[in-house]
Amino acid sequence: IAFAVAFGRIGTLGPRGTALLLALAAFAAIYLVPSLKYPANPPAIGVAATIGLRTQIYFAMVLISVAATVGAAILWRALLDRLSSWDAALVAGAALVLVLVIAFVALPNIDEVPDAFPATLLWRFRIASIGTQFVLWSGIGLIFGALVARGRTIATPTAARA
Questions:
Q1: Running DSSP on this structure, what letter comes out for residue 12?
Q2: C-alpha–C-alpha distance, residues 90 and 92, integer Å
Q3: Which residues lie closer than 8 Å to 20 by C-beta, 6 or more apart?
Q4: Rounded to the nearest 5°, which phi and psi values hold at 15?
Q5: Is residue 19 within 8 Å of residue 142, measured between CB atoms?
Q6: DSSP letter at 115?
Q7: Whole-angstrom distance, CA of residue 140 vs CA of residue 107
Q8: Secondary structure of residue 9 in the 3-state scheme
Q9: CA-closest candidate to residue 104, choices 52, 33, 47, 54
Q10: Could you report the per-residue pLDDT of 37-77, keeping only the tens digit for each?
Q11: Minimal CA–CA distance to 30: which of 65, 82, 79, 73?
Q12: % helix, strand, coil for the chain, step of 5
């Protein structure tokens, strides 16, 4: 649905570029930004009694991040009538950062990693988690973009392609 809404509306990107850009934006909004506030922890880390609260505030951060990203895209599009694409992107990006900083400050901090837990193991787990999500989202974007481009080629009559 996001691709159908965005295709042809975010510059001169083809289907592959649009799909990849949307996938990377989704990676940032759905995973990366929330993970900066609430990074992934290995299994069995944290207090079992707080899992409900931790889940709620993590999903609140995801919702805020996605809404702010969509809002920044809408703001960028609205500003194109008055500003250059670059300036509109700077204003929309600044608005996005402002909303996210407010959310980072307003939402509670969670630090339940035991002091004795090895820092290098925690760091490796978090980097591996980010890498896994990056591969997932970029793979979705690349494969979806290729399928859409192929579908458009197949659907276009030979005479119209020439």
A1: S
A2: 6
A3: 138, 141, 142, 145
A4: -65, -40
A5: yes
A6: T
A7: 30
A8: coil
A9: 33
A10: 999 888 877 777 788 888 999 999 999 999 999 999 999 98
A11: 65
A12: 75, 0, 25
* Cα(34)–Cα(61) distance, integer angstroms: 6
Please write down the HEC assignment for all residues of 106-133.
HCCCCCCCCCCCCHHHHHHHHHHHHHHH
Taking CA atoms, 41 is separated from 86, 89, 123, in Å, by 38, 34, 9
99 CA to centre of own chain: 15
Residue scoring higher pLDDT (154 or 62)? 62
Residue showing tokens 């979705």: 140
Residue 135: CB atoms within 10 A of its CB come to: 11
Per-residue pLDDT of 105-128, as tens digits, reads 999 998 888 888 899 999 999 999
- Tokens matching residue 70: 């969509």
* Helical axes 85-106 vs 51-79, angle rounded to 10°: 160
Measured distance CA(129)–CA(41) in Å, rounded: 9
pLDDT tops 60 at residue 144 = yes
User: Six-digit token pair at 34?
Assistant: 């929330």
- Residue 109 DSSP label: P
Conformational region of residue 81, where left means phi above 0, alpha means psi within -120 to 50, and beta covers everything else: alpha
